[in-house]
Specification:
93 residues, 70% helix, 434 Repressor (Amino-terminal Domain)
């Protein structure tokens, strides 16, 4: 069964750093990921790359890179499926 809505890895990351009391600016500095890239990632508009995943693993001890990589893969797969369903629905009209 597919979830009723999609949550991007960036949205999960945003909540995680907030829960740890880390500001987005501090997190950008910790990871070396530019702030603008992080902003797009948090909004689900930037894919989470393998390089980013390893930077996250280093910054967020206890969450392995593989977790972020798999999360991104599942998110993109579901996004493609949703886009396909949307196109199918639009073509029926």
């Amino acid at each position: 069964m597919e979830p009723a809505f999609l949550v991007s890895p960036g949205q999960i990351l945003s909540k995680e750093i907030k829960a740890r009391g880390i500001t987005k600016r501090e997190f950008a500095s910790m990871t070396g990921i530019p702030g603008e890239v992080l902003r797009r990632l948090f909004k689900g508009k930037e894919p989470l790359t393998i390089v980013m995943a390893f930077k996250l693993e280093e910054a967020l001890k206890g969450i392995p890179a593989l977790f972020w990589i798999r999360l991104e893969q599942k998110y993109r797969k579901r996004l493609r499926r949703l886009d396909g369903i949307t196109m199918l629905y639009k073509n029926r009209k």
